[in-house]
Each structure stands twice: as structure tokens, then as C-alpha cells.
Amino acid sequence: MEKYAEESFKTGWESGKHTLHNIGANVIELHYDNQVAAEFAKDHAADLIVGLDETTRNMVRSTIESSVKEELPWQDIKTQLVDSYGFSESRAETIARTESAIVYNQGFIQVAQESGIVDSVTVSDGDGDEECASYDGQTWTLEEAMDNPISHPNCLREFEYNLKETADEGE
Ligand SMILES: [Zn+2]
Description:
This protein has a domain at 2-116. The strands form 2 sheets. The chain has a 3-stranded antiparallel β-sheet with strand order 4-3-5. Strand 1 (18-23) and strand 2 (26-31) form a beta hairpin. By secondary structure, it is an alpha+beta fold. It has helices at residues 2-17, 34-44, 54-69, 74-85, 89-115, 130-135, 142-147; strands spanning 18-23, 26-31, 118-124, 139-140, 158-163. Bound molecules: zinc ion (ZN). Zinc ion binds next to loops.
């Protein structure tokens, strides 16, 4: 089960970066900019972690921000949290996975909002817990997705873009 979770998360990391869509003959690429996710990290990373003093919280936040900016995988964030701040392995892993899932998903939605061509998203989730299983396959507005990037620590939620109809596009 642990292995499965790790695989899924890696896939999300890959697909979160670049998404290619086909609209008829047109291929539109929405480029995922890590800068967008890094901005979310700068403003909000580590907000939800309990039991941190302000100094540690700021250090963790900047670790996540710079790691996201450099496209480092969550495993690297985990290592930094263990080595630099003395977090336990399991706590560091939860923080690294959860925090990067939040900022990458929010960045993913922001790219959609700015593109103007994404209508909604389809939720991919259901990583073994009841609540998330019910979200799997649902269609959410971009606002809903932005407000709910994940539902719980270690959540494996991903979004897929549903593009707007392009009927009015010139030939
Ligand atoms: Zn979940």
C-alpha cells in the first residue's frame, strides 16, 4: 500500500508539470510554471502544520518554496526537513508530501484560471479513505478545486483539466 501511494504521487508530480491537450486539430499546451507553485509556497506553505514555533515555520516554508522552485521531488524536501530541522522521518515525509501536494495543486488550478480555456476539473482521488473515494471522478469548478487542493495529510488528489468548448474558434 505504501508503495502504491508513492507511485501515485510520483505520477502526479510528473503530470502536474506539463499538460497537453488536444482540441480538434489544435494542440494546446498549458505550461505548468513552478514559479506559480513557489508563490503559493511562499505565502501559505507550512500554515497547516501544528506544533511549530514561528521561526521553524518560516524556515520550513522557505525550504518548501525553494524546493518547489527548483522542481525538487518531495523526497528531497523530506531529506532537508530531517537533516536541517531534526524532524522525524515520518513527520518529514508527511509534511513534504502534503505541502507539495497543496502548492502544486493550487498552482495547477491557477494556471487553468489564467489560461481562460479551462472550464472545470475532474478530481482523481480515493487513496483508501472513504471520504476521498466519494470525490473520485467528480467534476469541480476551478474555485472549488482551489479551495480544496487536498482533504487530509498525504492526500493523493490530482486534477485533470476539462477544457471549454471551442465552437467559436475561427477556422
Ligand atoms: Zn485524498
